[in-house]
Predict the 3D structure of the following.
Amino acid sequence: MIKFNSNGKLLLTAEYVVLDGAKALAIPTKYGQNLIIKPTETPTINWCSFDEQKNIWFNGNFEINNNTLKPLQQNAVSDRIVQIFEAINKLNPTFLNIKSGYDIETHLEFPKNWGLGTSSTLINNLSKWTNINPYNLLKLTFGGSGYDIACAENSTPITYKINTESEFPLVEPVCFNPIFKEHLYFVYLNKKQNSRDGIAHYKAQNKSNLKTIILEINRITHEMLHCDNLKAFENLIDAHEHIIAKITNQIPAKDLYFNDFNGSIKSLGAWGGDFILATSVTNPESYFKSKGLTTVIPYSKMIL
């Protein structure tokens, strides 16, 4: 038996513009996903996926034949697994050239609708198993900037920047442990945001002054890393929200849903769903519960 683990992710800065070369601040989460591989003697893959409650959310069987995977059932998850293994085969053509097979289990440590990286943790785990570059596998499957893969592999906060001169990005472990972290909370918006839809929306915008915007986002990322008081951090959040709202032609979450909230609110990743970051001097749980949002996680309980 072989076991692999990858961390979940949250993107604190540079959502969207990380795709155009901005430097992002990203944080691995305590919640991740495990991959367990058990070799078998028959040329099949028997796949079983468990959620955070240890309930099976997918169960499927596949035949291995001529370096390809053939599903024995038809559904969207099976099709996606076949697509992933087609990409693996392109990157490592000998991997499926076998007469044996595998029992595969995936175990999530968070609800899959939270958006913490169900796909990226799977891609990273499979890449470790098949000995391929996870960024290349991501590119051939789900797409995106790749910051989530960097979080999957790192156990500290990181800065992340796409590197146009290499197939590997520029990833730097950083110290981000704000002294005001007891005033930071992650709030789930009760809806899953499709990152691919968010990226498509961003790419469709007319992005003038992009170089200036990237420089400003890079400055905010740098200042967040060195910020030593809550008010200054809130000012950085508000400035960041204003910039991203303008370039993506969207309305900030605070203006849309929480305009009476006494603190700052920042969207994380693609706007419109998943988690937000909220700053508050007092515990804001009752406020968000009054809005129907019951998942409010203190910073220290979310971040690795």
